[in-house]
């Protein structure tokens, strides 16, 4: 029996046991609530939520792939799941999900490399460090040197991981029940749908390598953004080899002076939000583990599994919807969405739809200094849930590029909130949103770099190198 399969069976047993524990604690909490004072009831509920959070970490932390991403998303943003007074302790518990997972012995990793690349590791690489640099949800990363002396990292899928991920979908259902115990109002069905949609893409390293190659070409020699180049000849369905980036993890930025954190915040916005409007490549997975602070001062971006290429029509819709939010033109926004078939053409739905989009994108339209607080994501989630439940929105289906961008915005706010970044955020968006000259030094540097790729509706779609 494989290590992955053994682990899957152990996880299934653990999930079942954990779910039973949470159910028992819920019964106890309800009993206490019936017989105690209001303060005692609140205390019991608080203890129950924190215990459920610990159980959720135990369940999701043992999963692989997209299921694990659910936990990492919860740990990176504040969805307002618990009362404000216990929020720091709650987030500290969930933060365990951002840590590296358990690695596999290199003997098993070697076998995947050799099966996929068709030769012995020693014939493919001059040197490989058998101690992993990092272990993630579906694979681990090893530093290596190619035969021609190139310093690289090898990202390798765990053997048997595809089977384990699909099996973990059953465990995820129980994990989401635990999440419902913490926050009964959260839309766990939407979370499960997103996980199912992402599984195939996440397992296809050839697709991810193509995405990364396209991004690396666009940002090659950029003044403050770095995307490592891919070694195409050493990539396969389960192996990606790309350039090594010397630097520190994202968390190192949190202790830096305000001006350093503000600069990093603007770079994050320019990469995850501004970029797609110029080069048509949308990366929907902002996460602390996917950003490095390179030794040369640039921010390096990794992991391109959750990705969307944007065509002319999609770009036009995104631009029009964002500009309508900026001008607070509910009718203009609704016209875009109704023409795209997202909602029924009922004018009464226009204002609530604008309020939903404004909750997600409004911070980017503020023309004065604003410090990002991760609690903004709680308002986003609340408004989205309310919108889905409101009359007339039951069949709401946002276009894929809107879903990817909104998810990116939510996770991006998590990163900006961790930095406590302060900026006039409208100044980071003036070039594409208003068609104005850049208002910041980083904006001027970027516009000079992209002189032949301006922000226009007619910009060609970026293609892989």
Automatic annotation (TrEMBL):
Taxonomic superkingdom: Bacteria
Keywords on record: ATP-binding, Kinase, Nucleotide-binding, Transferase
Protein name as catalogued: AarF/ABC1/UbiB kinase family protein
Family: Belongs to the protein kinase superfamily. ADCK protein kinase family.
All copies of domain ABC1 atypical kinase-like, residue ranges: 97-333
Annotated GO MF terms: kinase activity
InterPro entries cross-referenced by the UniProt entry: ABC1_dom, ADCK3_dom, Atypical_kinase_ADCK, Kinase-like_dom_sf
SUPFAM superfamilies linked: Protein kinase-like (PK-like)
